């Protein structure tokens, strides 16, 4: 097992009706800014419920809506102005990954005095924590299980054609309320996205090379098997509480640091996927469904031992020689994504060779030239991966 430093201070409150804990969890005698997305929070009534809970104690409650999917820096700056002017003490994100991530950026940018007027530079640090001394504390009310943003300190922020990660230990939510019933209103395609995103977060930290991390491997396999069991059910039966509750908890546990502690991590699929979203506007998870199987096709040799373990323990594939077993596991994965209604080829989204050139240019521009758990995925290999996904 590799050395690790595991820190996760987020308080999770999970289950039916848990929104009623909001008043107790949120600071009193404070100014709270509720952040939300493009309208679903209003439409579904969750925003009204949040406001009712917050009104139970003395606090000044403000709102900032319009944080769309793949949150845009220019939009978020509107909230930063409010936080500075109104001296907001606490941010409450009500939404999915985009709202939670956008709120993390607001939390940092509002108090990052060294970056006033040049907040864009906060996107320049990649996986290194941004050099800030604090952030406005925040909490979340989750409405879309997928990203794990509710229990991690990362965010992905878009600035035009740049979609870049931002990390800071100050942006772990103080609390997150995870009520699976608040996700019943999701469109089917967003639920399928959530299953795929969770699946790919898990394999990015598991299908690498062996590190004798038995607990992490078996926990990752547990998440994957759970997703295979409940994935289709939770897409087809949106109000099946148990299926949805399992998705919500898997999504949170897949990216809160637990399964990634002490193991090599890949993130090749995500880095290529982010470029595809920035250039073509395709949902995050849908990009992953195209790239992940292709990464395995091209990186079979480097990932051989873990792909064989994945084939046997997750899919029960034990027949045939090694190559046959690996190929079968890759096919099973693609079929699983397709069974959720998610397409797995670039061509399905009208992306061809010319599109690949643009993706490679963006990877180059963003310094994504040494990807994977071993840092040996060059732009040439990324091109091969994309060609395998055509
Ligand atoms: O904007 P509104 O109107 O609220 O609608 C949203 C949005 O259109 C809608 N929605 C959310 N909850 C709903 C709902 N509609 C009906 N009922 C509800 N209960 O769903 C749409 C998608 O929402 P979004 O937040 O964009 O989706 P997701 O949670 O998949 O987040 C994607 C973003 O997270 C980033 C992605 O790159 C992308 O920008 N990621 C963040 C990560 C992290 N912080 O750790 C890791 C991930 O790998 C990912 O990169
Ligand atoms: Zn993801």
Number of strands: 8
Low-confidence segments, ≥5 residues, pLDDT <50? none
Order of helices and strands: EHEHHEHEHEEEEHHHHHHHHH
User: Main beta sheet, described?
Assistant: 6 strands, parallel
CATH topology of the largest domain: Dehydroquinate synthase-like, alpha domain
Q: Are any ligands bound, and if so which?
A: 5,6-dihydroxy-NADP, zinc ion
**Computed structural class:** alpha/beta
How would you summarize what this structure contains?
With 390 residues, the protein is an alpha/beta fold. It is built from 14 helices and eight strands.
Topology (SSEs and partners):
Blueprint: E1 11-14, H1 22-25, E2 31-36, H2 40-44, H3 46-54, E3 60-64, H4 73-86, E4 90-95, H5 97-109, E5 138-142, E6 154-159, E7 162-167, E8 175-178, H6 188-204, H7 214-236, H8 241-254, H9 268-280, H10 284-298, H11 304-315, H12 322-339, H13 353-365, H14 379-388
Parallel strand pairs: 1-8, 2-3, 2-4, 4-5, 5-8
Antiparallel strand pairs: 6-7
5,6-dihydroxy-NADP is lined by residues 37-41, 44, 68-70, 95-99, 101, 143-144, 146-149, 152, 154-156, 182-183, 185-186, 190, 193, 197, 255, 270, 284.
């Amino acid at each position: 097992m590799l050395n690790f430093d595991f820190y996760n201070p987020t308080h999770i409150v999970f289950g039916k009706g848990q929104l009623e804990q909001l008043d107790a969890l949120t600071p009193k005698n404070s100014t709270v800014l509720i952040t939300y997305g493009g309208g679903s929070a209003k439409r579904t009534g969750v925003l009204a419920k949040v406001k009712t809970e917050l009104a139970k104690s003395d606090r000044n409650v403000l709102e900032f809506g319009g944080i769309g999917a793949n949150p845009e820096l220019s939009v978020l700056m509107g909230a930063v102005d409010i936080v500075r002017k109104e001296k907001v003490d606490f941010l409450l994100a009500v939404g999915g990954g985009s709202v939670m991530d956008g709120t993390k950026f607001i939390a940092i940018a509002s108090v990052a005095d060294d970056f006033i007027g040049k907040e864009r530079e906060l996107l320049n640090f990649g996986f290194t924590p941004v050099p800030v001394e604090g952030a406005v504390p925040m909490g979340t009310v989750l409405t879309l299980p997928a990203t794990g943003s509710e229990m991690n300190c990362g965010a992905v922020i878009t600035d035009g054609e740049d979609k870049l990660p931002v990390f800071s230990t100050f942006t772990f939510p103080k609390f997150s309320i995870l009520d699976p019933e608040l996700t019943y209103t999701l469109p089917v395609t967003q639920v399928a996205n959530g299953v795929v995103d969770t699946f790919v977060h898990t394999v990015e930290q598991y299908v690498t090379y062996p590190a004798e991390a038995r607990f992490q491997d078996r926990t990752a396999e547990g998440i994957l098997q759970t997703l295979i069991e409940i994935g289709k059910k939770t897409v087809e039966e949106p109000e099946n509480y148990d299926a949805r509750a399992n998705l919500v908890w898997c999504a949170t546990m897949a990216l809160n640091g637990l399964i990634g502690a002490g193991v090599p991590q890949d993130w090749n699929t995500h880095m290529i996927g982010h470029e595809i979203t920035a250039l073509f506007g395709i949902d995050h998870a849908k990009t992953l469904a195209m790239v992940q199987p292709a990464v395995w096709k091209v990186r079979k040799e480097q990932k051989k031992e873990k792909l064989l373990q994945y084939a046997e323990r997750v899919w029960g594939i034990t027949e045939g020689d090694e190559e046959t077993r690996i190929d079968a596991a890759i096919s099973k994965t693609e079929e699983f994504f397709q069974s959720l209604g998610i397409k797995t080829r670039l061509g399905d989204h009208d992306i061809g060779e010319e599109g690949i050139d643009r993706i490679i240019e963006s990877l180059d521009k963003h310094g994504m030239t040494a990807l994977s758990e071993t840092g040996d995925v060059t732009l040439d290999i990324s091109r091969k991966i994309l060609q395998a996904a055509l």
